[in-house]
Design a protein that fits this description.
Layout (H helix, E strand, L loop, with lengths): L1 E7 L5 E7 L3 H10 L3 E7 L5 H9 L4 H16 L4 H11 L3 H15 L4 H6 L7 H13 L2 H58 L5 H35 L2 H13 L1 H24 L4 H11 L3 H15 L4 H6 L2 H4 L3 H12 L2 H21 L1 H35 L1
């Protein structure tokens, strides 16, 4: 079970976050064992299948969020109260889902909830990362800087995704054309020439028989296959949004070499950006790592940063705690630069440099994504095309040999 909590430390610092426990009593014991005075503890209800699907399809486009956060940042810089900011955004926003979410956030704030608590009720609009960053801004008193950071970060993320989509156009077109040609061959061409080979007694190769079998299945059971694909897609979308699904896909992002090249720099950039903002705001390193664990938007790293926070609380340096996890989760450069920051007393500036370095690296990798995919794509499609045409040409050659 997952519980949301608000608590204060012995020093009076406010802490907010989530705790996993078998029951409410167990959750209370865990928090009390960390010397926390509990202000609020409530169970987080798991959304059902239809709610998860509805949230997936009702997501606000990233392009709309870029404009939304940028407008919010400008209004914060003008030192306008939060209520007025949300009223202005409600009037200016054209996206209906974003407009409704803004109205509900405004209502909840007027009822006494904090901005982060109100935003947390609108998860179809505000990501876990955004909610955690807003919460950290409330803790540090730097909400205006956090919103400015969110605006910049969302713009960079939108730029990366746009580049990735542009790079994926060529591979998708090639694969799409191959699937269409293969479908025509399997469903229209092969059934027409099969009787000729049957009458002549020419033995078809294994791959040709496989394609003919596939042709028969597609022709007779296409409606069942379509229904199965629709159900499978809906179940996959639902699974991706569960904790188990997120953990699996987060692990795949690190295990698969091509995905790792893209996602590891993005994760390091996000970690460093959040850490720089928190430490600059005066948050202790251990508490900063706990907050970062909720902002990183990766279940694997969430657990890592909670362990790192506990190590730092026990008296270990942050760089030493990170080194314990090796180069697989953290590139060697990260703990080295953090160590320099700890030695010089400029940890926040070192985090900013780490963030800038990995942001540029992620941008370069995404820009060159097509070049990374193209060789694999050409080899794969080449092999499949060769097999497809060999399944026709070889029997035809054997047929001509029999006739002659």
């Amino acid at each position: 079970m997952k519980f949301r909590y608000q608590a204060r430390t012995k020093e009076g610092e406010l802490q907010v976050g989530f705790v996993e426990a078998g029951s409410r009593d167990s959750a209370e014991k865990i928090l009390l064992s960390h010397n926390l005075f509990i202000l609020l503890l409530e169970e987080v209800e798991k959304p059902n299948f239809f709610t998860r699907l509805l949230d997936f399809f009702n997501r606000v486009k990233l392009k709309d969020l870029v404009i939304y956060y940028r407008q919010m940042s400008v209004l914060f810089e003008s030192q306008i109260p939060l209520n007025r900011i949300l009223e202005t955004l409600y009037n200016q926003t054209s996206n209906p889902n974003l407009k409704e979410a803004t109205y509900e956030v405004l209502e909840d704030i007027q009822k006494g909830l904090s901005f982060s608590q109100a935003a947390e009720k609108q998860k179809s609009v505000f990501s876990e990362f955004a909610i955690s960053m807003i919460r950290s801004g409330e803790v540090t008193g730097n909400l205006d800087k956090v919103i400015s950071f969110l605006a910049d970060y969302t713009e960079r993320e939108f730029s990366l995704i746009s580049k990735a989509k542009s790079a994926a156009v060529y591979p998708v077109v090639i694969i799409g054309v191959f699937i269409i040609v293969s479908g025509i061959m399997v469903t229209m061409v092969f059934p027409q020439i099969k009787p000729i080979f049957d009458q002549s007694g020419v033995k078809l190769p294994f791959f040709a028989n496989l394609l003919l079998g596939l042709s028969a299945i597609l022709t007779d059971w296409w409606f069942v296959i379509v229904i199965f694909l629709i159900i499978f897609t809906l179940l996959l979308i639902d699974f991706i949004q569960t904790d188990e699904g997120k953990a699996l896909f987060d692990e795949l992002k690190l295990r698969l070499p091509l995905l790792r090249k893209v996602f590891l720099p993005i994760l390091m950039s996000r970690f460093a950006n959040a850490s720089a903002l928190l430490i600059k705001g005066g948050v202790p390193v251990a508490q900063a790592m706990e907050i970062v664990s909720n902002t990183i938007n990766n279940i694997i790293y969430q657990d890592l940063f909670k362990k790192i926070a506990n190590e730092v609380k026990a008296g270990m340096n942050l760089s030493e705690a990170i080194i314990e996890f090796g180069n697989y989760y953290f590139p060697e450069l990260v703990p080295q630069m953090i160590s320099v920051g700890e030695t010089t007393g400029q940890l926040d500036k070192m985090f900013e440099r780490i963030a800038n370095f990995y942001a540029r690296e992620a941008d370069n990798i995404v820009s060159n994504l097509a070049e990374l995919i193209q060789p694999i794509l050409i080899i794969g499609i080449g092999i499949l095309v060769a097999l497809l045409f060999a399944s026709i040409l070889v029997p035809i050659y054997n047929l001509t040999s029999v006739i002659s």
